[in-house]
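input
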Amino acid sequence: MIGSLAITILFAWYSRGLPDPDTLLRRNIPQSTKIYDRTGEVLLYEIHGDEKRTLIKLEDVPDIMIWATVAVEDKTFYSHKGLNLKRIFKAILVDVLQGKKAQGASTLTQQFIKNAVLTNEKSFDRKLKEMILALQIERVYNKDQILQMYFNEIPYGSTLYGVESAAQSYFGKRAKDLTLDEAALLAALPQAPDYYSPYGTGSRGDNRDALVQRQKTVLNLMAEQGYISKDEAEAAKQMDTLKKLQPKQIGDIKAPHFVTYVRSQLVEKYGQRTVEEGGLRVVTSLDWKKQQMAEEAVTAGVEDRGEKYNFSNSALVAINPKNGHVLSMVGSKDFFDQENDGQVNVTIRPRQPGSSFKPIVYTAAFLKGYTPEMTLWDVNTVFKTDLKNYEPKNYDLEERGPVSARTALQGSLNIPAVKMLYLVGVGHVLDFAEQLGYTTFGDRSRFGLSLVLGGGEVKLLEHTAAYATFANEGKLVKPVSLLKVEDANGAILEEWKEEKQKQVVDREATLKISDVLSDNEARTYVFGGQNYLTLPDRPVAAKTGTTNNYHDAWTMGYTPQLAAGVWVGNNDNSEMRRGADGSVIAAPIWQAFMKRATAEMPVVSFSAPQPNQSTKPILQGKAFEQTIKIDKISGKLATEFTPPDFIEEKIVHEAHSELWYIDKNDPQGPPPSEPSQDLQFENWEAGVAQWVEKESWNTTSTAPLETDDVHTQENRPQVTILSPTENQTLDNRSVVISVSVQAMRRITRTEAIMEGETIGASINGVQSFSARIPNSIQVGYRELTVAAFDDVGNRGEAKIMVNLTAEPAPISAAIVYPENNQQLDSTSFPLTVTVSLTNFDNVDKLDLFLENPQNNTTVLLASEIAPQKTLFTITFNSAFNSGFYYIYPVLVTHDKQNYQGARVGLRVE
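output
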């Protein structure tokens, strides 16, 4: 009782001010809507309020039209009283319980009221008023009268109202002459006439496939509800109804694809009748100058190369990355080209992007921890999948071995890109793409590893917006086309206000992708240095794309101030000729536009990314390079017994796949402990191994497997010090060292060492030699070491303690080898002369002279400036002429005093 009373009061309240059903069709004088560019001064198009309507009596509407409409829109039309309560309650349940918007709750009566009387506003108030009027109309008019009003009032697209006007405009015939397939197509339109545009100019792109699908749904419903037979339905489905359409007529219009795009948005927000009759004043984001540049670039590009490469169309979008304003939109080369579906707006039509999708994958990789420097194997690789194995190939069928992620992306190599997608994860990439604003990846089960090569369709507008987000350093760029909308009285219905943009991508990741995409040098090995992906006066990031069999060609790119995308192909998806690559046919259009569009903009560089801080060799591009230490003598791996002087460093390569070094779920973390557990590991390793074998990589650059067997513990000389003895007192700084040496090889040198200083030495296995303890060594117990070296550097030593009691000697220099009056012959050379200094603290220079007493001449053999040690060795490679000579040292002190050491006589045979 209380519930019924409340409903009665509610209906009474909302009935106030509603029009009398008897006067529903009285109208205000329509006013045209005007659409302007961003300045509000250039009129792009005027949507006239003079709607096309031809009144028709119900008896002139063919039964198939009535049946088709009732079947798809309101099968209970003849039994309800204006409302279908069952469908309304079902819609409410779907709304509340599932959180979704239910469709199809309105009756034909309600649809008539919504389009003839009320606005398209989505509110509870409007819906309730619609329901009240539906009940009232059903009491005033019978079903045939309501149908007649419906068929004269319902919109069928653009300014077409009523079925008679639609039949004449679309098919050039009276409604009574419509065929079954034509009637079904028209009945499919009223649900969303601006979306299902038969000319492919619907909101959100070319939706003619969806229209044909809905036409088939209408025919199926007619058969199910008994209006036609199944055979009749199937026969009608076989008809190509769209081919029967009459050419679309449009008046004076600028930027037509952009205008139809904007018009669709307005209709969706304010309803078709308000847009066509409400006198709106619309200021858009379009930059008319840049629009003209875009149109000219597209036209020239198609005319220059279209015939050669068998394409007839191109599209271009330009967006301001800082605010998302759509500055240019060319949906097809010629809007009025009926033969090539010129009215199709390709910028909002899903197309496969080819390799232009790779930057999305690589940016997702950078977010996950991978780096531009990371090394990837560009080798033929079989990828395991749930269905069948997948083996991608590069465009030129070549392999390049290890490459960096930077050069792989800039060279548009396919195999490394597929590997990168696997490492990142298909699901992760799709999540990332949706964060960037892509709306075309609904059914994820369709996608696999070919996604990175353009296996998923995108819209050029959304694709350009994603690149604009990179240009905007990770702040989301949403395309904006409406800046201001006013009603006929000047009241502002909506106005764009600059808002804080959402950071959807880590800034550093976008700096990396911009740094890579603007690196022209990294792409020259494929595209050459002079290509269409650069601008002459400023840095620019760019990427091309080409689909299999040359159906689509793309070029996407941006500066910090402008992002632009270009598509080239045929609207009927027919193949272009081989060689119709994005870099060949799309890039010239893109470059021509960008040159002109940025000409008056200041030059702005991309912010530089941080240096690579990763400690993992593979992420630094060094995973396959390893520095090893090699023994110079054996050529084998050095060991702890290999003398330092006999060790050389060498860079060698390890032939392992990326999965050997990287846990794909934690690329910056430690290498996987069991890489073979990865599904792809075996095949990735096999691809690497096959390339290594083919290129003979292992014969020149891999590490030896054996270790140094020349320098071993067993081969070390065994040294025994005979004199002096343990703890012996040394009261003179000149001492004779005697040793016993046992060795597997020839001894070449013996040295006496005290406190790190070599105090004496002998060569060629001489086991007794003189040594001089320098003044720098203080008195006291000191350790004496004698080391012996064989011909390959094996070192053996012995140590004893001695008690040094000799005080430091005055400044002097003495030759300790060779000894005085030593006999020499040609085998004595190379000859190493050893000079001992007692004190070098005040010494500026040490000179070594050779005196020939036969001709009374003296020559300077060598000099040491500011000596810093007490023992020097000077080697003479060439033998002296036979005869007798003296050699002697001379010290020059800071105060320019000279101290000559004793002369040592030498006889050379």
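quick obs: The longest strand covers residues 780-790.
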